[in-house]
Amino acid sequence: MRQAENYQTLLCGLTVAVLVLLSVTAGYAQPADALREVVQRFDQHRRQALQEKVFVHTDQSVYLTGETMWFKVYCVEGATHQPLDMSKVSYLEVLDMDRKPVLQTKLQMTAGSGNGALPLPTSLNSGNYLLRAYTNWMKNYSADFFFEKAITIINPFKRLGLPYLPAQPEYDAQFFPEGGNLVSGLPGKVAFRVTNAAGQGIDFQGWLLTAQNDTVARFRPHKFGMGYFQFTPAGGTTYRAVIRDADNRTLTRPLPAVSEQGYTMRVEEGTGNQLTVMVNTNLADAGAVHLLAHTRQVIKLAETRTLGRETSFLLDKKALGEGITHLTLFDRNRRPVGERLYFKRPEQPLTIQLNTDQAQYAARTKVNLSVDVPASAARSADLSVAVYRIDSLPSQASANVLSYLWLTSDLRGTIESPDYYLQPESAEVREATDNLMLTHGWRRFKWDEVLAQPRLAFPFVPEYNGHLVRGRLVNPVTQAPVARKVVYLSVPGKLLRLYTARSDSAGQVLFEMKDFYESQRVLAQPNPADSSLRLTIDSPFAESLSGKRLPAFDLNAQATQTLLDRSVVMQVQNRYWAERMMGYRYPTIDSTAFYGTPTERYRLDDYTRFPAMEEVLREYVRGVMPRKRQGSFRLVIPNSPYRDFFEDQGLVMIDGVPVFDIDKLMAFSPLKIRQMDVITNRYFVNSNFFNGVFSLMTYKGDLAGYPLPSYVVQLPYDGLQVPREYYTPRYETQSQLASRIPDGRTLLYWNPSVKPNAQGKAALQFYTSDQEGTYRVEVNGLTRDGQAGSQGTQFLVKSMIK
Q1: Which of 5, 78, 560, 647 has the most CB atoms around it within 10 Å of its CB?
Q2: Model confidence over 177-230: pLDDT tens digits?
Q3: Which residues have C-beta within 8 Å of that of residue 37, sequence separation ≥ 6?
Q4: pLDDT of residue 510
Q5: Which pLDDT value is given to residue 776?
Q6: What is the pLDDT of residue 30?
Q7: Phi, psi angle pair for 569, to nearest 5°
Q8: Is the Cβ–Cβ distance between 263 and 338 less than 8 Å?
Q9: Left if phi > 0, otherwise alpha if psi is -120 to 50, otherwise beta: which for 572?
Q10: How does DSSP assign 92-109, residue by residue?
Q11: pLDDT tens-digit profile of 497-534?
Q12: CB 350 within 8 A of CB 788
């Protein structure tokens, strides 16, 4: 949270600077006041709506069932891209073509990162899947903000069942007036994007026609199916675009409607570091207009101009932030009337240099890989490294951490070849980037919400300390939420864990479960006086979906042999190396009971075993006294500090599950109990307190058949993923080199956490396998200052080198 506080302090200073700038704007006192109010409301909204971004580096993008997907999660603050240690849990899902989850996992994060693995079961069908990741806090916003990446999974044990591909390709053609509007009599630029079903741009010819079939403009794409044309629309006229592809197939789409009155804005590169924003209107009394520029919701510029029919804003590009800047135009009534995106490439990304000691290696040979970063970033760089074989299986192009943070995460829709826009700048790259800004407009908020100053409500809170289990308590007859009731959640086992919560006005309960790993059985129950109420436990995974489309899966005949070869070596690996590949790195967890050291502890095997629970308690358990009241048992626990007895019943548990029917407990066989703990003073769990604690533990921690009441909710629940370590064999001796155990690895190396030394250097070593081919090294990295970088290289492996 200290990072978030520092970030807010920084932005507060930036906002004050903008307000000072507005206060000294000569000649525009009243309009400046209107803009100042927009700035203040925008800043207030930004303070309430902290943004997280998540990026996932996977070891590759095409898999076979039976293989394992390895991944590293980076979580950053949305404005600065600095690692954000706010959320301690991230959620990762694999969705099929129907947007149904087929794999789900939860990952522990520390200091804004975490890593894990997902074995891919043979129950999956071949196809393209959507990998997405997010935090609990990110569920407050649109699913479009989640990290998403297309991956391919092929099941060699099932018939492919490839979908029918229509002879006529399906094209998506969209048109975007610059600034958002076509206005009668005002010249404007219209950008376009035409893509196929896979989201890839196509080459074509296009014509803009009137209703009378007059040709107004001709156009062709510049890059990735995107480009623009210019024309002056006439009022009362409809326009349509006709597109003809390389096979002479045509497509017709209407242009957005022409407004009779309004505003247009054009952004043009000026000389030097100048950026010109031209504003036109056909309104007779437009008055003042305001321009607000913000980069990832950090205000960079706010200016006001008097508008007759035309005016312009001259912006210094040095004043804009790196990345995507939103240029928003407001009229004199503070209504947004136009918006445009502008991209400023990062000047100092994290530079990563990769070098292998050879360009070509024999099988089972050591590879020395050096990974170097600048000395200034040495102590703060966090890198993830994957080395895998390149084959002919179809793979999905995806962004690296640099292009994702600076581009993809702030744009809507599929970005084809995002790395292209971050290569060294040229006139062609600059034009393609501007077309991308014109056709992928998006912002992480709605202006009407900002200007209305609503009190933002966030149903999902950050998981500061651990996973939050969410439930809801309702009246089963009326379905009305039940507030202010205590609810218990237990995880039976040898590690005693008990969590308590109190329902809020919506009946919601939250249990914070720190260090909760693996799939376990959880039991939840309301207070026994409210046993007629119904308690449900919610899924922690997001239900909302983004609008991202997955391309149709298609496997060409040329990949058949590659698929067969890779399937064979995958099965060989699983046969000979399965045990070594399943190496887990179990986290250090406090094994003591949640109540710590008890006042009294009884290991029953050290005593004479009695067949009745009452005999055990009366004979040698001093801290618990069985009493009968009106024919029912109650257990009295002494209040040791005051040499008195608690009048009310204390907390009684078996394997961490609260027990309220003492008669049923007294009828349970003590021969199934291994240990009894007693706390003879008042004990607090969260905001709830208990008059002493009496804890019984069975031999296996599985309740040993203790009969639970019907209102107890029992369900399997997946905790956090236990970290796994990637195993790679070593061939250091002659006997290891001559081993007849086949080594079929196509993933030679995976390391999710590489830390360079003080000089910015990291020396990595691994061994090649028996598999020939070209191998690719991919590295993603991030520093504490928010510098992101990515780099790749290749080397060759041959069985014998002459």
Answers
A1: 78
A2: 999 999 999 999 999 999 987 788 999 999 999 999 999 999 999 999 999 999
A3: 334
A4: 95
A5: 96
A6: 56
A7: -70, -30
A8: yes
A9: alpha
A10: EEEE-TTS-EEEEEEEE-
A11: 899 999 999 999 999 998 899 999 999 999 877 778 89
A12: yes
Contact (Cβ atoms closer than 8 angstroms) between residue 67 and residue 570: yes
Nearest to 509 by CA among 472, 546, 482: 472
Instruction: Specify the residue for token string 């990110």.
Output: 138
CA-based nearest residue to 522, from 540, 542, 504: 540
Contact 49, 41 (CB under 8 A): no
Average pLDDT, the chain: 89
pLDDT of 630 reads: 83
Please enumerate in sequence order all residues whose Cβ is within 8 A of that of 476, keeping only pairs 6 or more positions apart, or say none.
532, 533, 534
When pLDDT is cut at 50, 70 and 90, the band that residue 66 belongs to is very high
Cβ neighbourhood burial of 60 (10 Å; 0-12, 13-18, 19+):
buried
Q: In terms of Cα–Cα distance, which of 720, 721, 727 is closest to 583?
A: 727
pLDDT of 163 reads 58
**Residue 309 near residue 37 (C-beta atoms within 8 A):** no
Please give the pLDDT value at position 20: 36
Instruction: Report the C-alpha gap between 664 and 708 in whole angstroms.
Output: 9
Q: Please give, one letter per residue, the 3-state secondary structure of 704-747.
A: HHCCCCCCCEEEEEECECCCECCCCCCCCCHHHHCCCCCCCCCE
255 with 181: CB under 8 angstroms? no
- Domains in the chain, ordered, with CATH? 600-718 (2.170.130)
- What is the DSSP annotation of 247-296? TS-EEEEEPPPEESS-EEEEEEE-STTEEEEEEEE--TT-EEEEEEEEET
Match 């009894």 to its residue by tokens.
676
Q: Residue 668's CB: how many other CB atoms inside 10 A? A: 20
- Tell me the C-alpha distance between 280 and 278, whole Å: 7
Which of the given ranges, 493-497, 720-724, 787-791, has the highest pLDDT on average? 787-791
167: confidence class by pLDDT, cuts 50, 70, 90: low
**Ramachandran assignment for 542, one of left (phi > 0), alpha (psi -120 to 50 degrees), beta (any other):** beta
Q: Which of 196, 412, 352 is nearest to 781 (CA)?
A: 352
With cut-offs at 50, 70 and 90, classify the pLDDT of residue 9.
Answer: very low
Q: Which pLDDT value is given to residue 131?
A: 97
CA–CA gap between residue 678 and residue 620 (Å, rounded): 12
Residue type, 17: A
- Helices and strands in the chain: count of H runs, count of E runs: 10, 48
Alpha-carbon span 574 to 590, nearest angstrom: 34
Interatomic CA distance for residues 233 and 259, integer angstroms: 9
**CA angle, residues 590, 594, 599, in degrees to nearest 5:** 110
Going by the DSSP 8-state scheme, the letter that residue 496 receives in this structure is -
Amino acid identity, position 648: D
The pLDDT of residue 582: 76
CA 395, CA 392: separation in Å to the nearest integer? 9
Residue 105 CA to residue 90 CA, distance in Å, equals: 9
Distance of CA 321 to the CA centre of its chain: 24
Cα–Cα distance measured from residue 635 to residue 652, given in angstroms and rounded to the nearest whole number? 9
Grouping H, G, I as helix, E, B as strand and the rest as coil, residue 334 is coil
Q: Which residue has the tokens 């200007």?
A: 451
What's the rounded Cα separation, in Å, for the pair 132 and 116?
Answer: 14
Taking the C-alpha atoms of residue 469 and residue 467, their distance in angstroms, rounded to an integer, is 6
Query: CB–CB of 48/456 below 8 Å?
Result: yes
C-alpha span between 662 and 6 (Å, rounded): 53
Whole-structure pTM value: 0.91
Q: Return the structure tokens found at 800.
A: 């014998």
Q: Distance (Å, rounded) from C-alpha 347 to C-alpha 209?
A: 43
Q: Using alpha carbons, select from 636, 656, 646 the residue that is nearest to residue 682.
A: 646
Question: What is the SS3 assignment for 340?
Answer: strand
**Mean pLDDT to the nearest integer, 466-472:** 95
Q: What is the mean pLDDT of residues 437-461?
A: 85
